[in-house]
Amino acid sequence: MSEARSATGTVVVAVGGNSIIDPKGGRGNLDTHDLARELCEQIASLADRYASVVLTHGNGPQVGFELLRNEAAKGVVPPDGMDVNVAATQGYIGYILQQVLGDVLEERNEEVPICSLVTQVEVDPDDPGFQNPTKPVGPFYSAEEAAALSSGQGWRMKEDAGRGFRRVVPSPKPLKIIELPSIRNLVHSGQIVICTGGGGIPVVRRGKRFEGVAAVIDKDLASALLASGLGAQDFIISTGVPEVYADFGKPGQRALRRVGSDEVIRLRNEGHFASGSMLPKIDASLDFIRNGGSRVVITSPDSILSSLDGETGTTIVP
Q1: Is 219 a catalytic residue?
Q2: Active site residue 276
Q3: Which of 39, 118, 164, 176 could make a disulfide contact with 122, Cβ separation 3.0–4.6 Å?
Q4: Which CATH number describes the domain made up of 3-317?
């Protein structure tokens, strides 16, 4: 095992689902090994800086593809529930990240064990999110395509940050990570853990048992809950932009570099962050800071290390 593993502290890294899908490869391209390589190089380097590294990931595009497959094949095989679609994406995204990260570590002669854990997250069956779907899943569509899908399939469609229209599904607030004790044990044993994928499989308690529900939990909110539960010192959110911006897309757009949480709250309340893209990341960051976290870094996958050094990215501190 590398001597660098004597470093201290825990970091949780939340990776967006769009980071591991080729934007130029069409709606169904999931050949993500090459795309995961750059990210895993950064994650492997984090293992030299922290005693414990925990990796979570989004699944918005991927669970959308699962839903499309279900729809296309419903005349041949019964469709899976959305909770099963989330579990499936946890499995194959976790597999890819685990394999590529393992390759990178082996090339560096670092013997750090890695595991992927299928993770359930409890939600409230009466959460208002079930009545107001907001979570974008799947590919982008034109306004004409969105109208046709809304009419023909009954899908709820919503414009997503100026990039087109996407299907939206319920996104209840995460309350409890069911496998947190197991994750803690794996972390304490020195493993890099990939877990809580896609925000976790949404489940509700029915008496003494849990039952999956049709929803997709926001992965950043679930990752913040995980980071707080693990007592992580740092929380990294990897997304499609190198920094967070105030007045995004406007003539006065400006990058936020190092900001206090009070300033972030002010900007949030002024409406600077879009509900379909950056707002959940900001809310997750503030949750983590309120619960005792030391630092949140929001940046693109290729800038994780430079952002930790303060050279790029947005850093939010108490």
Answers
A1: yes
A2: no
A3: 176
A4: 3.40.1160.10
